[in-house]
Design brief:
Order of helices and strands of chain A: HEEHEEEEEEH
Number of strands of chain A: 8
Structural class of chain A: alpha+beta
Strand order of the largest sheet of chain A: 2-1-8-7-4-3
CATH architecture of chain A: Roll
Oligomer: homodimer
Distance between the termini of chain A: 47 Å
Radius of gyration of chain A: 15 Å
Low-confidence stretches of chain A: none
Number of domains of chain A: 1
Strand content of chain A: 35-45%
Largest interface: A-B, 24 and 24 residues
Chain lengths: 131, 131
C-alpha cells in the first residue's frame, strides 16, 4: 500500500470518528487493536471513543498534519472543545480549551493495529490555571 | 531528498545530542528553528538542550521508531533516566523514571526548522505518585 493510500484511509478513519459512525469503526480499526501498550480490541476502542464523546459532547478531531510511511501514520491532532466535567482528572467543567495530541498508528491488514498517543495534558492544566 | 536520507540525517542528529556535540548542532538544526510554536533559533535550541542535560545528567535519547515522509520526520523517543531535582515542575529528585516523547520535525534545507513535541509528563507524575 502506498503512503498516499494509507493517508486516505486514515482521513477516512478521522471522518468516521467525527460522524460517530461506530458501526463503521471496524473498517478502520483491527479486531486486535492495542492502545498505549495494552490490548483493547475493536470493542474496547469503540467504548473508549464513545466515552470521549460523552465527556466532550462537541469533540471534533482536526488533523494539523500527517506523516505517513507505511505501515505507520503519525498525526498531529488539534482539539478546540468544551468538556462537560472532569477530563484527564482535571476539573474542566464546561470551559473551552484547546490542546494537541501527537499520535502514532501502526496499520495491519489496512486497519489500525497499534496506537501510541500522547495528549498535551499540561496545556489543559495551564489553561485552567490561567482562568 | 528521499525518506531514507532524511531518516539517516535524523539519526545523525540524535547521535549528536547523545554525544553532546554542541559545536556540531548547526549541521542538524536550522538557524531559524522554531519549537512548539515559538522562535528559538539555533542558539536557543542549544541552550534548551544544554539545560536538559544539566537537569538530567544521564539523559540519553532512544528512538523507539521513526515515521519519515519528507520534509517531515515523526519520532517516538523513550527516556530512562534520573533527573537531579525538579523536572517539568515535578520533584523527581534523583528518582529513576521512564517516559516517552512523541515529536514531529519539519526540515528545511536539510536541517530541523520546526518542532512540535509532546512529552508524556502524566507518566512521570504517575511514577512519582506510586513511590
Amino acid at each position: 500500500m502506498s503512503g498516499a493510500d494509507l493517508s486516505e484511509i486514515y482521513r477516512g478513519y478521522i471522518d468516521c470518528l467525527n460522524r460517530q459512525d461506530w458501526s463503521g469503526l471496524g473498517d478502520f480499526v483491527h479486531d486486535d487493536a492495542r492502545y498505549n501498550g495494552g490490548y483493547i480490541g475493536l470493542s474496547g476502542y469503540r467504548k473508549m471513543l464513545e466515552a470521549d464523546f460523552r465527556a466532550i459532547p462537541d469533540l471534533h478531531f482536526n488533523i494539523a498534519f500527517l506523516v505517513c510511511e507505511p505501515p505507520r501514520v503519525a498525526s498531529r491532532l488539534l482539539f478546540d472543545c468544551t468538556p462537560k466535567g472532569i477530563l484527564f482528572e482535571m476539573p474542566v467543567n464546561g470551559k473551552r480549551i484547546q490542546f494537541a495530541e501527537n499520535v502514532f498508528y501502526e496499520f495491519s491488514e489496512g486497519r489500525i493495529h497499534d496506537v501510541r498517543s500522547i495528549i498535551d495534558k499540561a496545556a489543559i492544566a495551564a489553561q485552567l490555571a490561567a482562568v
